[in-house]
Amino acid sequence: MAVVWLDDVRADDLDLVGGKGASLGELTGAGLPVPPGFVVTASTYRAFIEDAGIDDELFAAVEVDHEDSAALQAAHETAHDLIMETPMPDDVREEILDAYRSVGEGDAFVAVRSSATAEDLPDASFAGQQETFLNVTEEDLLDRVKECWASLFSERAIYYRNRKGFPHDKVDIAVVVQQMVDAEKSGVMFTRHPSTGKKEIIIEAAWGLGEAVVSGTVSPDNYVVSRETGEVETATIADKKTMCVRDEESGETVMRDVPNDRRHERVLTDDEVSRLLELGELVEDHYETPQDVEWAVYDGEVYMLQSRPITTIAEGDDGEEGESDSGGSSRATATGDDVLIRGLGASPGIASGRARIVTKLDHLDQVAEGDIIVTEMTMPDMVPAMKRAAGIVTDEGGMTSHAAIVSRELGVPAVVGTGDGTKTLEDGEIITIDGDKGTIREGEEPEEKQRQPVEEARPKTPVKPMTATEVKVNVSIPEAGERAAATGADGVGLLRIEHMVLTLGKTPERFIEQNGERAYVDEIVSGVREVAEEFYPRPVRVRTLDAPTDEFRQLEGGENEPREHNPMLGYRGIRRGLDNPSVFRLELQAFRRLFDMGYDNLEVMFPLVNDAEDVLRAKEHMREAGIDPEKREWGVMIETPAAALCIEELADAGIDFASFGTNDLTQYTLAVDRNNEHVADIYDELHPAVLKLIGDTIETCREVGVKTSICGQAGSKPKMVQFLVDKGVSSISANIDAVRDVQHEVKRVEQRLLLDSVR
């Protein structure tokens, strides 16, 4: 038989229905409320490729060097075409369609989900590498099943199996077809506290479909429920601005604004909380381990959509009273009375620790693991200490400051712009910082969850929004590479090398003088390679050195740096590289070595160009360093009005891409220093003049075949995303913590454009 019903599937049917199918069948067999559905079995897929005689050709096509991105892409395309162009046998077609017509009333919207037989193994997780389709009808069902089969040979899946040494011909794939729940409300439930293991139910809930909650698109209500009394101990009602729903006309899953009268309304009734508590205890008892459950409510009924073990609870942690991550410290009251100072919440999260006042670089040695750094402003050579710290507080700076950017990439809570934190706080006192609210409170507060920066960055759902516009990620320091890669971004839109250089503690000239040219090249190669390896074969766009002289002046050898009234307008970017080619050529040598090592996913980007002369001179230096500009991807930053207005000449010089640096482009266009508090209120990346420069540049680049992207802070803002997608930008590079939100926003705008084109 081609299909089996979930009613007949159990946990030990993994080889027949894959991991997802086995889990859903087990829940169904336990009598839990699971939407009806069936599974197109893994053996059906195997019979399909073998009976059609494409199996040998299929497996041969994907036996490629997975470090060769071109070969990897060709393998994927060959495998996809083989499966999609091979007709499905008539008996299989009819059996799948007959089963579909038995779901609901025969014309139901269904979810079509891949369920590979090698998902969630102890030493390898293949989950998230295959496709999922929502709101599918009979018209597209068979094609979606074949798309799921073909997704077993996505570039990512081929690459991963090759690296793990897992034979391609040993993995089969089943497809779950399940009735969609047109949820009125939905969310997730933990049957134990996911960090401490405490015996309480944690529920998050929002209006509409659950994708918005598990992807982090919406801030959900949060309920903490006692398993002993069944009472809601705390209910935090969020401002729920958007919800995920099915569009009645198109059948597509879309985001809609929540009506004003429901934004602050409590999502769950007491009866619904009680029902979820009951179901949570049933599923935990059945599996005999704490569970992470996805659920939905429709027409008064609660449905279970997925259940998996909670993996974040430490072994042996039973959550008994008196145990906590704080070691028994008292909890701050979180009222206004205990707030010592306020600033701008620049990197989310809550952290407690001893305040370490850092007014000189010599003080960094005093920063121990878990301390809170309190300083006037952070500098690149503080990064090693920032990695040890539990949080960061600065007197100065905003959302684009070094402290804010690096803290977000490291997953460390930060509050910036406090004004006088270094004077108000005392060295050694215990404080708690809240990187969401921008407050610093006295005393220690245990965190709600054990912070795991990489896992926090990883999307809570493996279903990545499919977009024509690529969504990439910005990376400032190599240490953030793993966390950035975990977002599922399409690549790195900006990797800065200045932080790698500045953390050496010496100016490039002084370091080279003391250690030699080879050592300097090695430092750059090591840092860039760390990120390139995490993302391979996804592209990584590396920008050459762009640090103003005031940052170099803080380093050993900095006394030789020129003193400039406004370093942001001075000796930096490509102008410094071209004026001092002895250092610039070493950067290019590092890139050439990386290319020779096989990192063909690297792209070279030159900052602060003004005109074609800058580009042509940089291009000649590439050739002298052994980099063929005709074979490697390279381009420029558009950070000055001059570069935007001269884009045709830049394109004629041979660039492959142009990337907007909106931080600089905005301040140069509006004559506003973005770090000057007296004019900060008129700093606006969405100013009509800035948008016109960007829009006109994109239009010209599209005409001449040059790709465009954005890597400034504004790329993480919804309004800028909407503008860029409307104009046809090739890619958007967002901050690490904004990647999934930007993916969803891009998808929403692209869907609107498609709908507008056919109306």
Layout: helices, strands, pairs:
Layout: E1 3-5, H1 14-29, E2 37-40, H2 42-51, H3 55-61, H4 69-85, H5 90-101, E3 110-116, E4 132-136, H6 138-150, H7 155-164, E5 173-179, E6 185-190, E7 200-207, H8 211-214, E8 221-226, E9 232-236, E10 242-246, E11 253-257, H9 260-263, H10 270-287, E12 291-298, E13 301-309, E14 339-342, E15 344-347, E16 350-358, E17 372-375, H11 383-388, E18 391-394, H12 402-410, E19 414-416, H13 421-424, E20 430-434, E21 439-442, H14 453-457, E22 470-475, H15 481-485, E23 492-496, H16 498-502, H17 508-515, H18 517-535, E24 540-543, H19 549-552, H20 573-579, H21 581-596, E25 602-606, H22 612-624, E26 634-638, H23 641-645, H24 647-652, E27 657-660, H25 662-670, H26 688-704, E28 707-710, H27 718-727, E29 731-734, H28 739-758
Parallel strand pairs: 16-17, 17-18, 18-19, 22-23, 22-29, 23-24, 24-25, 25-26, 26-27, 27-28, 28-29
Antiparallel strand pairs: 1-2, 2-5, 3-4, 3-5, 6-7, 6-12, 7-8, 8-9, 10-11, 12-13, 14-21, 15-19, 16-20, 20-21
Helix pairs in contact: 4-6, 17-18, 18-21, 20-21, 27-28
3D architecture notes:
Keywords: ATP-binding, Kinase, Magnesium, Metal-binding, Nucleotide-binding, Pyruvate, Transferase. Residues 15-319 form the Pyruvate phosphate dikinase AMP/ATP-binding domain. Residues 315-324 have a biased composition (Acidic residues). It catalyses: pyruvate + ATP + H2O = phosphoenolpyruvate + AMP + phosphate + 2 H(+). Helices cover 37% and strands 20% of the residues. Helix 18 (517-535) crosses helix 21 (581-596). The protein has 759 residues and is α/β, with parallel strands linked by helices. 48% of the residues are buried.
